[in-house]
Structures are given as structure tokens and as C-alpha cells.
Amino acid sequence: MKNPQIEGFCNPEFSELEDIFSQAIKSGFDDGAGFSLEIDGKEVVNLWGGFSDKDHQKAWQKDTLVNVFSVTKAMTSTCALQLIESGKLNPDALVSDYWPEYACAGKEDTKVIDFLTHRAGMFGFQTPLPSDSWENWDMIVEKLAKQEPFCEPGKTQGYHAVTFGFLVGELVRRIDGRSLGTYFKEEIAEKFGIDFIIGLDEGEIQRCADLLMLSGKPNLLIQTILSLPNWLLPTQVKVFKETLKSKEYLKAFIEIMDVADSKILPSDYPNSMSWRKAEIPAANGHGTASGIAKFFGILSSGGSRNGLKMLSSETIRNATTPKTFGPDVVLFQAPYKFGLGYQVDAPFSPIGMKDGMFGHTGIAGATGFADLNHKIGFGFINNRQHSLGKLYRTSNNLAKKLYDIL
Prior knowledge:
406 residues; 3-stranded antiparallel sheet; 13 strands
């Protein structure tokens, strides 16, 4: 295939969004992507285009799934919020009230809210997971239950990039009996017709786009920053450098799994069968842009649709009120703000651009958010990861133009 095609529909009122999306694909900036927009319960844009494979032989389809990494945290948080709303889970209770084995090694006073706000001091594994063990849920949560935290729970915000989903997911399992992926499927995805899955089966894997991840090796700019003495660097660049070298960043993003005897490179994990089939509720949700926009569209317009309730408006208001403000010791000391699991201000991305926004971003560029004031559900997905400065370029451009139009 030579020329990437754009398909789908766009309400004429938002034609400038189609122009931005089309340019991102046809310029080659995004290999393949999808974009969907709901306003006040109505889908007004649903576009997809480009290629779903690394060799550019397969066109992106309406139902192409892609791993959206941390956007998954919003779905996982919503499962926990349903249990909070029903009175089965108390955010101010001790984790050990639901998970007794967790109360050891300095974690005895950890509260449920510490899990949901990245303040549990458990942003990584003290020793990496055995290679290719993503599907071994019991081993992973037992490892987390036994280990010491990296810092005193409740005292420091440090983004739990991968561990968030295992920690929150185990609470859901302890209370409800179902795994997080099954709970989400039965209580949210199937009820509301949302094309989003945590833990794929064989048939669903056939719909997946290849993820084209960065190698993990620092680019020339980062190599230069790392090599220069601190006294030569501006304050913000020095903070960036020190974070990249820090225990917090390495444990949260790099030293997760022992890859010494693995046949899979870390950058290839997201395309592996093990990763796709596992339930990694912080990082391996797969969805369409339309599914993500619908999910956030429901939350933005009161939490109910067609007589079914996902969350009450009161729960949504509470969950989207900032509970922690950073600086985040994992995310470059940046002032990320979290409610109960949702990002309410995520620097570098659209989230926080306007009051009333909440959602989550993913490390490969995917973005999902709701806007309570405009009743917006926004979903952007892509399969080529860009460096930090370009990571959310397309979703930022789309969001800025959207608000210009509104």
C-alpha cells in the first residue's frame, strides 16, 4: 500500500479537526490512528486512517484495536469508583481491611486513596519480575504485598506507571471476586457497548495494530543532557536529567521485568502475545477511539446512558476534584494533578487545558478525556510512539482546535 487513506465521518461543523487528523496521517507523522469525539451524548466525529502494521501493508480499520497504555488507568479507576459508590470500598480505609497480606514491611498504614492518587510509595518492584510473566497475576500481587515501599505511603506523589493496575485491580478482585478485566467487561464495556478490552482473547488479538515503540535508548539530545555537568544546565533541564537517572524513574518505567533471559526486547513487549493476553490494568487496555470517546462521553454527561448508570454525578464530581498536586518524583517533578485515579491536569497533554477536564494519557500518545462543562468525550489513539516533545502533538492540536470551534 502506498498512500494512507482517511475514512469515517465528521460533522461539517468540525471539518477543521478532520483536516488536522488527515494531515497527521498523510504527512507520515502518525502511521495509523483513530479519532472520535462525542458532544452531549452524540458522536460528531469518528475518523480512522493510515496503517496498522509496521510494513504499511494493512489499512487501519474502523474496529482496529491499539494498546493505549495508561489511558487504561481511567477505566480501572472507574471500576474502583463503582465499588466506592456502592459502599463496598472506602477510599479512606486501610488497604489491609480488604487485602490483609498487604499490611507488612512498612505498608501497614497505606490507605485505599494512596493507591488511587499514586501516593502509596509502590511505583515499581524492588526486584524485577521474572521474564515473560505478565500473565501471572497471583505472583505479581503477592510480590507487591510482600515488598517494602520505596517511600513512606501517603507522603510522596510518584506515578505508579505499571503497579497502579495491579494494586487497584487486586482490591477489586478481593471485594468482587472477578478480575479487573472481567469486571470491566461485564459491568461497563458490555453494558454500554464500549469497544475497550483489558486482556485480549485470540480473536481480539487479530484486530490489533502493531505498536511502533521507541527503542528505549536515549536520543542524541538526551544523551547530551546526561553527559553535561549540572552547573551548565538550566534548572528545569537539570531536574529532567536527575529524574532520568533517579531510582524512582528507573523503577517505575525501566526496571520492571528481568529481560536478561527473555527472547523479547522491552520495546517489543506491547506486541507480544503474553502482554496482549494478560490483564495489566494500568497499561495494556486495547480500544478504538470511538470506544474511548463513548466511555468519557458518558462520564461527561452525567454518568448514565439509555437508562443505565456508570457512575453518579456526585461520584464523578468527587473523583475529579484534585486530591494530589505533585511535584511527581517519577514524572520529572511536574505538577500532575490526580483525582481518584483520573488525571485532572497532565502537563504536555490536552488534559488541564480547560476547567472541568479529566481523563488519562498514554505513553505512546493516546489520549482520552471528558469535559464536564462542555459534555465532551474525546478519544485519540495511534500506534507510533514519539519522543516527549512530540508525544501528544496530534491530540494537542485536535483539542486546541476543538475549543477554538466551541
